[in-house]
């Protein structure tokens, strides 16, 4: 279990990463989804369901970051749900690509990064906030 000061530093860092990641995701996804034709053309062979998932997930990233900042248990659970949903979307994207669907290599890189970031945030949040130990202590 982390000390209070150590716990605060990790919560602060995770929160800022989650919020910044969310705001960037909303900005970038929104530019392609709601921008002009130039933005869509420059995005190349984007996969619409992945783009929509990431755009919507960006809002969840911000909310999770706020929950982690406030050290709320629901923030940890939301981070875990984001990690799971991202992995599921990545798996469906894999089926899309192996079925011959068009895609950009940067989507593979971006989804790998998103998966790693949210797995790391979930793991650290779970450990630092003590959700795992409080779950065992419940009657």
Automatic annotation (TrEMBL):
UniProt keyword list: Membrane, Transmembrane, Transmembrane helix
The reply to whether Membrane figures as a keyword in the UniProt entry is yes
Transmembrane domains' residue ranges: 9-26, 46-69, 76-96, 108-126
Report whether Membrane shows up as a keyword of the record: yes
Recorded protein name is: Uncharacterized protein
Which organism is this protein's natural source? Pseudohalioglobus lutimaris
